[in-house]
Amino acid sequence: MIRPSSLAAAARPLLTSAARATPATTAAAAATAARLSTTRMLRDQHDASGTTHFGFRTVREEDKESLVRGVFSSVADNYDLMNDAMSGGVHRCWKSAFIERLAPAPDTRLLDVAGGTGDIALRFLDYVREQNGGALGAAHVTVFDINPEMLRVGAQRFSKLGLENGGPHVSFVEGNAEELAGIEDNSMDAYTIAFGIRNCTHIDRVIRQAYRVLKPGGRFMVLEFGKVNNPLLSTLYDAYSFRVIPHLGQILANDRDSYQYLVESIRKFPTQQQFVDMMKHEGFQVVGQGYEDLTFGVATIWSGWKL
Ligand SMILES: C[S@@+](CC[C@H](N)C(=O)[O-])C[C@H]1O[C@@H](n2cnc3c(N)ncnc32)[C@H](O)[C@@H]1O
């Protein structure tokens, strides 16, 4: 038999929590949920045994960097062609949208990390020129990348356009996004990283370094493959990714493995919201939801401010 007093006891926690559900407690609960989601996601990126993922493979943390380096050394000469082939040229629209959202001024100092062959840097300088009556003003971009082959292809490309490495508007610097060695604290107006951060072993360290080098008021922007939230489109996208892209890699670049890694690494990257939580965790402020999906979330732009 259930006694009235036990009914009252059972009801008490419910009544108590309902009575306490003030806006402050709701906000605190949301913050706790965000922290847990960030912690879970970080645990998914590396675990206590010192392993991480390289695509769907589990590898030792210290091995990932050289494996990623191998991928980009292998694809460097065909990188631009493959981007067009895989995306049907759509990556160009994503990158242009990315720079339009950044809307740099003629005196912007940009650090483009994982800048590779310079796609973002070129769009940055084009944007400034268009907005500034054909002049580049004091605009400067540092293309920063861990891979010398990617940088070599980029520097050659810029040189053909009359923009010399080390000149007034561009420099190419080799280094790791997780350290940003040689880049001073509070020295940059903007930091961009396009299709680069998912290749890094410690995403949290990359974001922390971005925060360090940005000036107060500086902007952090990430362009990366997101998650497609529509179930039907997501199924089609998966089929295309896993069945077509590695074949294209084989046919066009004689390199199936690098493109298999590409599609797998996209699946291992945090969700749109998890990445926002990571940015906030490192100190960035976001406006609105903090991200914008492009092409149904195939690509996503995240944006944060160092205030
Ligand atoms: C897919 S490419 C993107 C290149 C360019 N941002 C673009 O959008 O075309 C990824 C780049 O990230 C670079 N990368 C990978 N890990 C890195 C790290 N830890 N630090 C700096 N660059 C890294 C690779 O060398 C490669 O050039």
Query: What is the domain tally?
Result: 1
- What ligand molecules are bound, each kind once? S-adenosylmethionine
| Biggest β-sheet: strands ordered side by side in the sheet | 5-4-3-6-7-9-8
Report the CATH topology name: Rossmann fold
Strand content: 15-25%
Low-confidence stretches: 1-21
Helix content: 40-55%
Account of the protein in words:
The protein has one domain: Vaccinia Virus protein VP39 (Rossmann fold, 3-Layer(aba) Sandwich). It contains eleven helices and nine strands. The protein has helices spanning 4-20, 23-45, 61-75, 79-87, 90-102, 119-131, 148-160, 203-213, 231-253, 256-268, 272-281; strands spanning 51-54, 57-60, 109-113, 140-145, 170-174, 188-194, 214-225, 291-294, 299-305. It has a seven-stranded mixed sheet, with helices on both faces. Strands 1-2 form a two-stranded antiparallel ribbon. Helix 6 (119-131) links the parallel strand 3 and strand 4. The termini are far apart. Residues 1-21 have low confidence and may be disordered. Bound molecules: S-adenosylmethionine. Residues 68, 72, 113-116, 119-120, 145-147, 150, 176-178, 194-196, 199-200 line the site of S-adenosylmethionine.
Question: Which key features would you list for this structure?
Answer:
single chain; disordered N terminus; two-stranded antiparallel sheet; binds S-adenosylmethionine; 11 helices; Rossmann fold; alpha/beta; 307 residues; globular; 18% strand; 7-stranded mixed sheet
